[in-house]
């Protein structure tokens, strides 16, 4: 069993102190959420798309695109890729509708935040971004809940290409946190003729970053300074992100390219950071290893 310690982000210190001062209490009920690690190859190794998330997000102030579930995530969708039964088995989840919600949420949030849409008219096609303004208008309507994601896809005759996703990890925020997410992380590459771009009027910072380069400078404030927000400047990687982000970056940096990263067998056991205080300094403790191989290989068989 591997034991890892991560610095606690400054905005969480007061909450941690309160948790210890008044003793353990009943943790707040977590919301369900999904996040996607976009990846691509580069001369500097595997790159991923990171964004700034304001308001002390449980996913991290700098994190992968993602967010919480919505009612439309359980609607009826045209579905390409592994069946819900296969997905549920891979995610070790009896509730197939819940498995669907995690998958749909990941694809929807990715589209809202970056404009990348994992959808097509059949199991061999992926939609192309032919009109940037039309694309952005649709993203704004979906993000503002003026247009349901399932209705958007239905109008365009599109189904979800769930075979383009891979599950990579499952995390639950620590018990002391005021905002908690039960989050599944997935990974995907960018389809041809699509480009990542921030949502108009909402996105403040988003960038492709080489995982290895970020980790090489994880003890410096270089990434936080480049984001340039009050709660990122002068802070290290652990202080502006979340252990899930850092450990997913480690898995990318270790991989010899995107193909190796996508095809890697993984342990998908739930990771639940615990609060630890040592010499008056607070840390997040994580048990386990992202490199542990899974006995459940990923299924790519198409089905409905």
Brief summary:
The chain is of the alpha+beta class and 304 residues long. The protein has 10 helices and 13 strands. The model is unreliable at 290-304 (pLDDT under 50).
Description of the molecule:
By secondary structure, the protein is of the alpha+beta class. 29% of the residues lie in helices and 22% in strands. The protein has ten helices and 13 strands. It has helices at 13-21, 84-90, 96-114, 132-143, 149-155, 211-216, 222-227, 237-240, 243-254, 258-263; strands at 3-7, 31-40, 47-52, 62-63, 66-68, 79-80, 119-120, 159-161, 166-172, 181-189, 206-210, 274-278, 281-287. The strands form three sheets. Strands 2, 3, 4, 5, 9, 10 and 11 form a seven-stranded mixed β-sheet that branches. The chain has a three-stranded antiparallel β-sheet with strand order 1-13-12, with no helix packed on it. A hairpin with a 2-residue loop joins strand 12 (274-278) and strand 13. The longest helix is centred in the middle third of the chain and has 19 residues, at 96-114. The radius of gyration is 19 Å and the shape is globular. The N and C termini lie far apart (38 Å). The relative contact order is 0.23. The model is unreliable at 290-304 (pLDDT under 50).
Estimate the strand proportion: 15-25%
Alpha plus pi helix count: 10
Poorly predicted runs are 290-304
Overall spatial form: globular
Q: Can you give the helix content as a percent range?
A: 25-40%
Number of strands: 13
Radius of gyration: 19 Å
Task: Look at the helices and sheets and give the structural class.
Answer: alpha+beta
SSE order, one letter for each helix or strand: EHEEEEEHHEHHEEEEHHHHHEE
Largest sheet, in brief, is:
7 strands, mixed
Distance between the termini: 38 Å
Return the average pLDDT rounded to an integer: 91
């Amino acid at each position: 069993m591997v034991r890892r310690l991560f610095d606690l982000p400054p905005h969480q210190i007061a909450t941690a102190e309160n948790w210890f001062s008044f003793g353990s209490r009943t943790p707040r009920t977590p919301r369900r959420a999904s996040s996607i690690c976009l990846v691509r190859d580069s001369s500097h190794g595997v790159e991923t798309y990171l964004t700034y998330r304001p308001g002390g997000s449980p996913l991290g102030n700098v994190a992968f695109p993602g967010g919480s579930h919505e009612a439309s995530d359980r609607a009826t969708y045209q579905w390409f890729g592994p069946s819900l039964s296969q997905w549920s088995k891979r995610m070790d989840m009896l509730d197939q509708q819940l498995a669907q919600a995690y998958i749909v949420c990941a694809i929807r949030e990715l589209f809202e935040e970056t404009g990348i849409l994992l959808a097509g008219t059949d199991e061999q096609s992926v939609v192309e971004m032919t009109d940037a303004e039309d694309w952005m208008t649709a993203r704004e309507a979906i993000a503002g809940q003026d247009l349901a994601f399932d209705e958007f896809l239905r109008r365009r005759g599109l189904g979800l290409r769930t075979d383009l996703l891979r599950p990579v990890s499952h995390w639950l925020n620590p018990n002391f946190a005021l905002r908690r997410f039960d989050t599944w992380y997935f990974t995907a590459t960018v389809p041809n003729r699509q480009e990542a771009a921030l949502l108009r009027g909402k996105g403040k910072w988003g960038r492709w970053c080489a995982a290895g380069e970020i980790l090489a400078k994880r003890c410096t404030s270089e990434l936080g300074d480049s984001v340039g927000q009050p709660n990122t400047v002068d802070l290290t990687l652990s202080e502006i992100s979340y252990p899930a982000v850092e450990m997913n970056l480690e898995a990318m940096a270790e991989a010899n390219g995107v193909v190796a990263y996508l095809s890697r067998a993984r342990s998908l056991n739930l990771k639940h950071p615990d609060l630890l205080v040592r010499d008056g300094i607070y840390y997040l403790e994580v048990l386990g290893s992202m490199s542990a191989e899974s006995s459940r290989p990923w299924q790519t068989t198409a089905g409905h």
